[in-house]
Amino acid sequence: MLGVVEGTKFHRVQEHASHCLVPSKEDIDRKLMMNGKAAHIDAPAEAVQSQSEDPALAAGPKDAAAARQTATASTSQPQNGESAADPEPPNGVPVFVMLPLDTVTSDGAFRYTASKWFTSALAGLKASGVHGMAIDVWWGAVERQPGRYDWSGYRQVIELIKSLGLKVQAVMSFHACGGNVGDSAQVPLPKWVLKAGDQDPDIFFTDRPREAKLGSRNKEYVSIFADEAPRVLCGRSPVECYGDFMHAFREAFFDDVGSTIEEIVVGTGACGELRYPSYVEANGWRFPGIGEFQCYDRRALASLASAAHEAGHPEWGYTGPHDAGTYTSTPEETGFFRGMGGSWDTPYGAFFLAWYSGALLAHGERLVKVATSVAPERPAGLPVEVSLKIAGIHWWYRTRSHAAELTAGYYNTANRDGYNALVEICAEHGAALTLTCVEMCDAQHPPVALCGPEGLLRQVREAAAAAGVSLGGENALPCFSPGHVDALPMMRSFTFLRLTPEMLKPSYQATWTRFMHRMRNNRARGPSPTARTSTGLQPITRKCAPGTEIFMCMSLMAVLHS
Question: Where are the active-site residues found (predicted)?
C-alpha cells in the first residue's frame, strides 16, 4: 500500500499488476468455463504477425497473433425481402447516432428547430433501423448562471426525437467543446466557471513548467484534483456542481428518463472520457506523440507530496518525472518511457503512475456514484442505464511502456493491466462501460506508431466480461467507407459518430443499409441465459481498408450483458 489519494486507496491500481493482458486460448476458455459457459476456439489456420519494439514481446501475452485467426467470412445481406427498416430483433445491437456537436448551441438554443434537413435526417435514420440518437448535454449551454438551468433547447430536441419513436442517449458533457480532433463547434465551460479559474487558475489541469514559466492551463475540464475543493465554484465544489446538474436533468426530464432517455453517459474528463487531457493539439500535440502528464496544478502537487510522504519517499513528491519528454516525443526518445531501462519500470515509476492513475480512478468513482444515486428507478421497467466512457488510446500500445496510455492516466503496461480496476468501478456501482475507437485496426496506422487498437479492444472486452460489466462501443473518428463500417464490432450497443450531410448522400445508403442489417442480426445487450450457456466464440471480420482484411476472434461477445 503506497498511500491514499483523496480518500481512495491505491489498491485498485496495484492489485492487478500480474494480469495477463491479451488472453491466450486457454485463458479465455478457463474464464468462460468459470462462469459456467462452454467455450470453443478453432485452431487458427494462420497467424497475423504484429510488430513490437522488443522482439521478446512476440512470444509474450500481448502477441497479437495469439488472438487472431484467419477464417472465411461472408458479408451479411438482407434476405427474404427484409430490409434494414424491419423491426429490431430481440438480440440485435442497438445503434445510436451522435447528433452534431452544435445541436444545442452555447446559448442554449436548439439550432435545427426549423430545419427540414434535420427532421428528415432523423426520420430517415429511424426508417433504417437506428435505435436512438446520442446528444451532448453541455454544461456550458444549460447552466449559464450558477444554479440556474435552461433546458429549453434540449426539451425541443428530445421531444422531436421522441415524436419519431427514437430513444435518447444523453451525455452529461461537463467538458468544453472545441480544440480537439473532430470538434466542429465551440461550447466553452460556463462563464462563471472560467471566471472562477481567473481567480484560481489551479482549478484547471496544468502541464509541466517550461523555461521557468508555469505550465499551460487546460480549460476543457476542471482539474480532478479540485473535485472536492470547497466553494471554489461560486460556493460549491466541482463534484457538487456535477451532482446538482444531473439532479436538475433528472427532474426536468423525469417522465422521459428510463423510457425515451435510455442511457446517461457520465462525462468525466476531456471529450467526456475518463482520462487526463494529455494529448491536446492546442498545446502542440500531434499524432502519435506520447502526450504529457497533467499534474502540475498546486492541488495535484500537494496530493503527490502527501502520497510520497506516506510511501516513505518524500523526495518523490516534489514534481512529476523530469525525463518524460514532450507532447510529440516517442517513447524511445525519453528516459521515462523507453522500453528497456525506462523509469516507468522502477519503484519510483510504479509509485508515480499508481498515484497518477489512482487519482483518475477516484474521480471516476466519485462521479459514477453521484450519477447512479441520481438516476431514478422505475417500478414499471428497468432503471435508466448509467455508463462511463473511456478513450481508446491505441498508439504505442504494442510497446512495453504504453506511454500514451500512461500520460492519459491508464496504468497499463507490458506486465500490468490498467483496465481491470476501472471496470471494477462500473461493476461495483452497476454502471456500463463504453470504449471508443472500436472501428480501428492495427494495419490502418503507420507501423512506426506501434498502434494496437485490436489488442486494446480484446483487453477491455476481457476485463468487462470477467467483471460482468456491459460493454458498448463508439467510433473515435467519422467513418463512411464500406471497409471502415464493416470493421465495427458487435457490442451491447454502438454509438455512431456522427450525423452529417455526408452520411445522408445517396452513394452512402447501400453501405449504411448493410451495416444496419449486420447490427440487427447480431447478438447485443444481453444474450438470454440459454444463449449464454450454449453460444461459443464468434469470429468477426475486420476490414480496415480496401483490400485489407484482418479476422479477429471476438471471443467474449457471448458473455457481455446489459
Answer: 273, 474
Q: How far apart are CA 109 and CA 88, in angstroms?
A: 33
Beta bridge partners of 549: 543
Domain that holds residue 94: 4-559
- Which of these is catalytic: 88, 220, 262, 273? 273
Domain count, the chain: 1
pLDDT digits (tens, 9 = 90+) for 260-296: 999 999 999 999 999 999 999 999 999 999 999 999 9
Residue 394 marked as a ligand binder: yes
Burial of 47 (0-12, 13-18, 19+ CB in 10 A): middle
| Residue closest to 13 by CA, chosen among 26, 4, 25 | 4
Residue count (the chain): 562
498 is known to lie in a ligand binding site: yes
The letter for the amino acid at 341 is G
16 annotated as a binding-site residue:
no
Residues 41-98 pLDDT 10s: 222 222 333 333 433 333 333 333 333 333 333 333 433 333 344 444 456 899 999 9
Q: Check the annotation: does 389 bind a ligand.
A: yes
273 is catalytic: yes
Least confident of 279-288, 386-395, 525-534: 525-534
Determine whether the annotation assigns residue 62 to a binding site. no
Active site residue 474: yes
3-state helix, strand, coil in the chain (%, to 5): 35, 15, 50
